[in-house]
Amino acid sequence: MAQRLARTVIPLIAALAATPYAALAAPPAARLAPQVKYTSDYRTPVMRQVHIVPTISGPGLLTLFGADGLQAQTLREMGNASIFATDDIARAIEGFYGQPKAKTIWVDAGGPTSKAIQALSFLKQADDWGLNAGDYTVKQTYDRYPKGSTERTQALAQFEASLSTKFLMFLQDNYRGRIDPNALSNYYDFKRKSLDLAATLSELGLAPNLSLVIKHVVPDNAKFAQLAIELQFLRSSSASSNTLADINKVVVAMEELRWLPREFPDRYVFINQPAYMAYYQENGQLALSMKAVIGQQDHQTNFFDATIKTVEFNPDWGVPQSIIKNEMLPKLRRDPNYLDREGYKVSVKGKMMPSAKVDWSQPLDNISVVQPPGPENALGRLKILFPNPHAIYMHDTPARGKFASQDRMFSHGCIRLQNPQAMAAAVLKTSIDFVDGQIADGATKDMPVPEEVPVYVAYFTAWPTTDGTVHYYEDIYGRDAETLNAIAAITASRSNT
């Protein structure tokens, strides 16, 4: 495996940067593992008919292809084309071909151009990058009819409109993924990327080589290229249930990478939940890695990105009301002094009082429970904050034994770090000795990071290490199956377009 990657990773990454897709051989048709059911609650985007209203003006267009004015005829016939697309793509197509100075992109007097042949080749290779080539099929019926016939012009108009629609869909899918992760469940939280479709169509019309257009939309990072290599390797291997399951994991990983920025920054933190690991990257290199504890099955950690802004030393812990209700109240019924004995501070409507004197039958909104700083504090001696609507952060923990477990799902959603001092030092751009000094000071203090650091709280069941070797992890929260079902639903919704 390592030798194979050493031979292929660097050349293929270079090929991706130069001429993505074209350097790769087309693999067998995409396959999903048989255990995946092709049903989904995922609501696919509505497809509507594209209504092109040609507005050809000026006599010059009639002679672009000679006396017969084939391009003008083709553009006029596009008003009768039968094409379906999502509303955003439909509006881009209608605007492009409805403008007074509209020109065809893919056909000329001789029929499909060399650019059209190149576009069709790229669409057929979509499987190489974890997409489904069947989503981008373009029918070619013009050869059934003699040149110069009305029927051939109509078929070329249909071909022109269809190829523009499918290629735009292909580019958009590469740029942001086929599915909207926010529609999968509440565990996903991303601002979905938006491709300027109108500008992209114009660029397609002007570009001498489509590789340049594709290069601007495909994820521009080594991880994506390494997953693409792995996908081709798996598809060339003899099929087995494990191989098919791994194919699924790689396909999902490539889809998920499209939800993240096209290029990873020079400096960031990456948490991969199925691996139970946290990483710190700097200058494109892995500078730090450590074990992590993530959320229990009923307190799953979300998949999102944010920005690290603060490190808090010697934090107190404001106990969430869900934990008060589900975990503390049962203990208080058995022992009303439980919170006092454990050192928690309880207040009712802002007034401090012993836990044994609190009327716990009142609304919990009235009650605050805080664990003061100290060696037994649930957050340990520091936490690393990146504001987000899920109240998730990284932190220390006194429960060090949990890191010895293979499956580390013990938290209520936050990420516990095996070596929090090292991570804090990294994001603060300081030394571990400095961090230890802040802890030893004993005071609770917030320290802003000198530069905000992106953090990706991610969920990848297939992920390459620094040498390009792809590792596979258990789908601990069952999210891959949801994603695969959503992808299958998208393909089904496109089957008649």
TrEMBL record:
One of the GO BP terms on file: cell wall organization
Pathway in which this enzyme or protein is active: Cell wall biogenesis; peptidoglycan biosynthesis
Signal peptide start-end: 1-25
PROSITE patterns, alphabetized: LD_TPASE (PS52029)
Domain L,D-TPase catalytic span(s) in chain numbering: 267-435
One term of GO molecular function: carboxypeptidase activity
Keyword Cell wall biogenesis/degradation carried by entry: yes
Recorded family membership: Belongs to the YkuD family.
Protein name (Swiss-Prot/TrEMBL): L,D-transpeptidase
Upper taxonomic lineage: Bacteria, Pseudomonadati, Pseudomonadota, Alphaproteobacteria, Hyphomicrobiales
